[in-house]
Write a structure and sequence with these properties.
The chain has 23 helices and five strands. It has 450 residues and is mostly helical.
């Protein structure tokens, strides 16, 4: 039981279309991407990987009656929206493509993934240093917030002013420590002589900065328009219903983060997971969402996987529970850890559920050895953090039909905590004969005997 007050489910702003209508609009934005994804998934042989091979590009353009530029753009969108998955040189349908016609939530998640990747969809202007582009991308959420709060067209000068303010704030946040007492600037003679071009560039700095911001704002607005997030008029921009909804969702995530129920936002992933260990599933997911909303997806996923690689089996399981809340953005990183034996069973179960399998049937994706390894890992978590009764009941979850068969396979699986788990189980089990057999197995593992 918990005495926490729950936050009522927020309602979208007045005038927001129903989810079914939003999904219809998202399907329209991604129509070409879906066609190309179906074509790529149904085309045997290599050549559909990124960048799209020339011969595949020509075949797709002919088959779909699109221009090569349309095919290339649709292919990029299909990849960014999770409609196709690349395995070496072969494209396979992503789970969203399979669910596209029947699952509005899958469609909206796919569009939001594209929305988040707007800066990849629309290439930045040439000749601008990467740092300036990154600052513009970091400042765009404030531009989107103004558009959302205005609930209508906003003039480009107003957006440019906001972008400039935010970029200036980013510069101020990252500036070096000013020279203090006792610290002097390098002698003038030690620095190269300023050229006339240097002096002119320094004098023109503010004007050049304003021009640069204007160029970057135009690029950002065009990129957001390209993914269907806003429309551009003469001297103004307006969020589309999809864009308005997406920005509202992200603002709500920030609000959730600011109201972390159990106060774990500032904690490391390990401390946050420990703080959630005794929460029931619903409140724990709320806490995961709050913690995740306060971080970038990439850093949060990396931190959770780093915790999962540690020695605490409880945190390993909880880390993958938190990754279930992350959902699609975590899929590439989870798939990448399949080669790590300690994470493979968890990753296989995560991917099975992510691809739409019923959680009760997800265990079928594990081999007998992987299921046994997971049994030992879960037993280690119970032994470290649970009650002895739970450890005894954990015997019933083993895939083996008998205790002797379980012990034989546990000894062979090579889990580093096997001995400790068996010793703890022997100490907890009320049946003397079974406890003796378990102790004997622990001794044999410890001494390397058969």
């Amino acid at each position: 039981m918990t005495t926490r007050r729950t936050r009522p489910a927020p309602r979208p702003p007045a005038g927001t279309p129903p989810r079914a209508e939003l999904a219809r609009q998202a399907r329209a934005v991604l129509a070409d991407a879906v066609r190309i994804a179906h074509w790529a998934a149904g085309t045997p042989g290599p050549g559909t990987a990124a960048p799209l091979a020339a011969h595949a590009l020509e075949r797709a353009a002919t088959a779909l009656e699109l221009s090569p530029a349309q095919v290339r753009a649709g292919w990029d969108r299909a990849r960014l929206a999770g409609l196709v998955e690349l395995h070496g040189d072969t494209a396979r349908p992503g789970w969203r493509l399979r669910a596209w016609d029947r699952d509005d939530s899958a469609v909206l998640r796919g569009w939001v993934a594209l929305f988040d990747a707007w800066s990849l969809v629309h290439a930045a202007p040439e000749g601008i240093e990467a740092g300036a582009v990154a600052e513009a991308v970091e400042a765009v959420p404030q531009v989107l917030s103004l558009l959302q709060l205005s609930a209508g067209p906003v003039t480009v000068p107003a957006l440019l002013d906001l972008l400039g303010q935010r970029v200036a704030e980013l510069h101020e946040e990252r500036c070096e420590v000013p020279l203090g007492p006792g610290r002097t600037a390098p002698a003038a003679s030690a620095a190269p002589a300023e050229t006339a071009a240097d002096q002119a560039a320094a004098t023109a700095g503010p004007a050049r900065s304003a021009d640069l911001n204007a160029l970057l704002l135009d690029w950002a607005l065009e990129g957001l328009a390209a993914v269907g997030a806003l429309t551009l008029g003469k001297g103004h921009a307006t969020l589309t219903p999809l864009g308005n909804w997406a920005v509202w969702v992200k603002l709500e995530q920030i609000c959730v983060a600011a109201q972390s129920p159990a106060g774990n936002i500032e904690q490391s992933a390990a401390d946050m997971l420990l703080g959630c260990a005794r929460l029931t599933p619903g409140p724990a997911r709320d806490e995961y969402r709050a913690w995740l909303a306060a971080r970038t997806v990439g850093s949060a996923v990396a931190e959770l996987l780093a915790v999962a690689r540690g020695e605490d089996a409880l945190l390993r399981g909880l880390a993958f529970e938190a990754l279930r809340v992350v959902g699609a953005p975590a899929e590439p990183e989870v798939r990448a850890v399949l080669a790590e034996p300690s994470l493979r069973p968890y990753a296989l179960l995560w991917l099975a559920e992510y691809e739409g399998n019923d959680p009760d049937d997800a265990q079928d994706v594990l081999s007998r050895e992987e299921a046994t390894w997971l049994w030992v890992d879960t037993a280690a978590a119970v032994a470290d953090h649970g009650e002895t009764g739970l450890l005894v009941r954990h015997l019933d979850s083993a895939v083996q039909g008998t205790v002797p068969a379980l012990l034989d396979e546990v000894r062979a699986v090579g889990h580093p905590r096997t001995v400790q788990v068996l010793v703890a189980l022997a100490a907890a089990h009320p049946d003397p004969a079974l406890a003796k057999a378990v102790r004997r197995a622990a001794f044999q593992v410890h001494t390397g005997g058969a």
